[in-house]
Write a structure and sequence with these properties.
Blueprint: H1 14-23, H2 33-54, H3 61-73, E1 77-80, E2 86-89, H4 96-111, E3 118-121, E4 130-133, H5 145-164, H6 168-177
Helix pairs in contact: 2-3, 2-4, 3-4, 5-6
Bound molecules: zinc ion (ZN).
Length: 178
């Protein structure tokens, strides 16, 4: 199962987007279906542009257009807290577009190579998601150690189990894993 395949929708409802934005320091009051569509379009475009960058391919023009449009249309401002942290202030609490502009600008700086790290593709053949490798050696293989990394290890473990001793337990485990 791929986290990024079209078949799996990770932000199925406006509320899920609201929750996700809050976790990322971009709290909004609400989200309309149209704003959710825009968020999905931005996510797909970032995915396409990051993948192209990871494999050193030309950037897809349509993806660049969507990312730029989202970046330009937002009115989020970086503000400094008394504790010295950076926060994002949106023009209004219902302005999902402002939150998306922060995400678009963030993606631009990563794709443009301004950040310390390297864009790579997940080694899981069923995932192949683009991720930003900030490890010291730049040798991270999976987009997420807890999902793809683990799945890969389990798959190898189960394959070995089957080779060594085919058991009902092994088959049941496979069912649980998939
Ligand atoms: Zn992955």
């Amino acid at each position: 199962m791929s986290d990024h395949s079209a078949a799996v929708e990770r932000i199925p409802t406006p509320q899920r987007l609201v929750d996700w934005l809050a976790v990322n320091g971009l709290a909004v009051d609400s989200c309309t279906p149209a704003q959710l569509d825009l968020a999905r379009e931005l996510r797909e475009s970032i995915h396409a542009a990051a993948t192209a960058t990871a494999i050193q391919d030309a950037l897809p023009a349509s993806a660049v257009q969507v990312i730029n449009k989202c970046s330009i249309e937002g009115r989020a401002a970086a503000v400094l807290t008394p504790e010295g942290d950076r926060r994002w202030r949106l023009s209004s609490a219902s302005c999902v577009e402002d939150a998306l502009s922060v995400i678009a600008a963030d993606a631009i700086s990563i794709i443009a190579g301004e950040r310390d790290g390297k864009l790579a593709l997940c080694a899981s053949p069923t995932c192949r998601a683009a991720f930003f490798d900030t490890s010291q050696s730049r040798t991270r293989k999976w987009c997420d150690m807890n999902t793809c990394g683990n799945r890969q290890k389990k798959a190898r473990f189960n394959a070995n189990q089957r080779k060594n001793a085919s058991s009902a337990f092994g088959s049941a485990q496979d069912l649980v894993d998939t």
